[in-house]
Amino acid sequence: AADKIRLIPQDFFAELCEQIIQHLNHKIPGINTAELCQRIQTSGVDINIGDLAKVANTLSFLFSTAARNNLSTEELITSLGSGVSTLPKHAVQVIRHVWNEQGKAIAVSEDATTTATVGQFVDMKWKLGVAMSSDTCRSLKYPYVTVTLTVADPSGQITDKSFEMTIPQFKNFSRQFKEMASVLETV
Q1: Domains in the chain, start-ordered, CATH in brackets?
Q2: What predicted TM-score, i.e. pTM, was given to this entire model?
Q3: What is the signed CA dihedral for 53, 58, 60, 64, rounded to 10 degrees?
Q4: Rounded distance, CA 84 to CA 167, Å?
Q5: Which Pfam families did the record assign (predicted)?
Q6: pLDDT tens digits, one per residue of 60-75
Q7: Of the four, 34, 48, 55, 131, which is 20 to 30 A from 159 by CA?
Q8: 97 Cβ partners below 8 Å, 6+ apart?
């Protein structure tokens, strides 16, 4: 991950660290690495989303471990210097600054973070479509619903999951959501 961190400009690295801290503090559901990667690539840096996700996971592990061990800023920087001597100077400076400013807030809420082992629902979009024809069938006129769920996995990576349903499947799906809503109203 240290080689990939060298590629990331300081301002983008700082933004990534801030998002990770906010995620660990439960202020945002996750880190949108796809959007951040696109912006980094637009700035002229050759990095792919997989590498950026590895960097984000590494930083998330670093910050959550430091919070779990209640490390001070100097203890964190010292441990970084002894364990990962290949980190670029700008990265160490950003980590120092972010941890100094916001590290204590994580230490308070870290016990809640460790219990969350499933992803978090962020958004849902759906659209109705009709398949008119295909190369094997001239007249389908088959309606379907495409659903896209946006979820943040436990490490904070935001991803979209899409699937299609027939109209009867969608009606069942909708009925189940209505049942959940009515149960939640009684709580």
Answers
A1: 1-105 (no CATH), 120-185 (3.10.450)
A2: 0.62
A3: 160
A4: 54
A5: COMM_domain
A6: 888 888 888 888 888 8
A7: 131
A8: 14
What SS3 state is found at 139?
coil
User: Tokens 């919070």 belong to which residue?
Assistant: 67
* Amino acid found at 119: G
> Residue 94 CA to chain centroid, in angstroms?
20
Describe the strand order of the beta sheet including 120-131 as a list of residue ranges: 120-131, 142-152, 158-165
Residue found by looking up tokens 């002894």 in the block: 82
Give the tens place of pLDDT for each residue, 1-38.
Answer: 677 888 888 899 999 999 888 888 888 888 888 888 89
| 123: phi then psi, degrees, rounded to nearest 5 | -160, 160
CA dist 105 and 95 (Å) reads: 15
